[in-house]
Amino acid sequence: MNKPIMAKATAVWLVDNTTLTFKQIADFCGLHELEVQGIADGDVAGSVRGFDPVANNQLEQSEIEKGEKDPVYKLRLKFNPASVGEEKRRGPRYTPLSKRQDRPAAILWLVKFHPELTDGQVSKLVGTTKPTIQSIRDRSHWNIANIQPIDPVALGLCKQSELDAVVQKAARKKAAEGGLMTDDERRKLVSTEQSLEMEAEPRMPSAISGLETFTLTGGSQREEEQLPDAESFFNLPDTDEDDEDET
């Protein structure tokens, strides 16, 4: 079902100017019933100005009258060429300024726990760019040492239904191509509830970064080779023979 242009503003106008039920307005505008109730209570869209759907050729007045008489009647959107394709927007997802600083943490979580996702799918979920995703994949991001993986759903960057749909799509594609997930990749797949309860990974101090593969095995062997044998200390020349030669 197509939604009207400026759906939330339309819902504000219908709440203020009609006696339609919250469910009727929610179904017509493509919103949740509780969100419409929040608009009526003033908790949601308090600064949004109402948008008249009748004056803007989206709804007939007769439809409103039918809906007010019958609480189960569903309003029908009037055909408007300008509303065609309104739901399918091209381009990256818009991310509010207050949440843009959380995107690297969400990207790291997706890369770590859902490696089957492509850069394009991650980009659409959290509204970022492919170079940023690649920098986090190869750990060349300027702030990678301070980034902790956090579920994008918990950060409010995407919905759980959207994440589940993308993950299932990626899994189906990988299965169709004949590529099975490794045991390591399968162990990384966790739910949102589990990821929120996980402890942060321990970080190695920057002072010893790069020395995590350093071992003392080779050095100890070389030191043992260089040390002389203990018996060589007791292999002293025979003094008696030297004295006899001198005499």
TrEMBL record:
Acidic residues: compositionally biased ranges: 238-247
Report residue spans for region: Disordered.
192-247
The protein's matches in Pfam families, at most eight in alphabetical order, are given as: TrcR
Q: What is this protein called?
A: Cytoplasmic protein
Look up and give the organism this protein is from: Rhodovulum imhoffii
